[in-house]
Amino acid sequence: MFSLLNRILSKDNLRRAYDRVVGNRGSSGVDGVGVDDLAGYLREHWSRIEAEIRAGTYRPAAVRGVEIPKPNGGTRLLGIPTTTDRFIQQAIHQVLSPIFDKDFSPFSYGFRPGRSAHQALRQAKRNINEGFQDIIDLDLKSFFDEVNHSLLLKLLKHKVKDPVLLKLIRSFLSSGLLLGGLVSQRDKGTPQGGPLSPLLSNILLDELDKELAQRGHRFIRYADDCSIFLQSKRAAHRVLRSITRFIEEELRLLVNKDKTTICRPVRFELLGYGFISSYRKGAKGKYNLRVAPKSWKRLKLKIKALKRKTSPIPFEERIQRLNSLMYGWLGYFQLGKMWGKLRALDGWIRNRLRYCIWKQWKKPNRRMRAFRQLGIEAGMAYAWSRSRMGGWAIAQSPIMGLTVTKERLDKRGYKSFLDYYEQLFHGSRTA
Description:
single chain; alpha+beta; four-stranded mixed sheet; 19 helices; 10 strands
């Protein structure tokens, strides 16, 4: 009966859990113990904590509530457990995840080992290009705040027979939430922020996956984002009505009727991507992935923040941060067709870098000397150094293009989005 708990509390499993929590860094919880202090804290308190876990008397601390802004407005509530509770949750996750994951749907892609957003996007493209082009873009309202504890524990009992472990998981679900100086008790929900939350959400939403599979529908799910692919609008409306009843009556969750839509591929967005008609000969009715407009907008806002002229950041550090952003962004959005957009983006970025350089030169005489060093004859250097044009206009002018060239920027560490995209992912302009 207690073999699962013994596996969770084994030295090897605890060592891996500790390494994962420390490696993830993260903020401290309500007790103020950070990841750098965790080893010392556990040395002093672990024997007591382990005894309480085995006896079924361990009580997790309240989670620290933090509201973070969403890209599309509003806020998302994160619950940050203490580092000790994250350590225990991680140890539980490492043992339970393989037990449950092997029976999850092959069309569930979020927070699972060996699964990724790219796989979900490729499957969505496959569904669309095989003729399933009336799409239910299902939105669950405040999913992580609405998870029913009793139902979730009932599902856990199918594979977890240890009552002490079940009691420990229930205590994590119902631990208080500290927000605005007040601690509130919770009888539902599993706040995002703890290592257990993704697994618990997949256990609950696997019931939705099974229902969709039993009905023979094509679908993909990434965490609480679910998309169902049908062959007619009429079928889509019928399925939406019936699956809404299932979600609200059987899973006791809420469907956000304002955000749930039935759409065609050109209006469908998934995990930061959109879909665009293929223009290849013989590919009528087929679609390719593209970067969604909102994703482009967020990228440009991040670049603007890095290139803000008032930030006291050395130029080389700006370049380093920009390159780091580029590697991560292109690593995720590599599936999109975007050669032309990247060419325009690179031109805009180089002008922003020129703007920063122009502002760093500051005084007219320094600007004149810089132009002379960059090969501009004396009269022109004098005239441009005293120009009354604004900084952004100067950045886009021929004088800066002739002097602060791409080659000179490259020597200072600048890397082009388009060059990196072609080099790593496509190797040609055909994308």
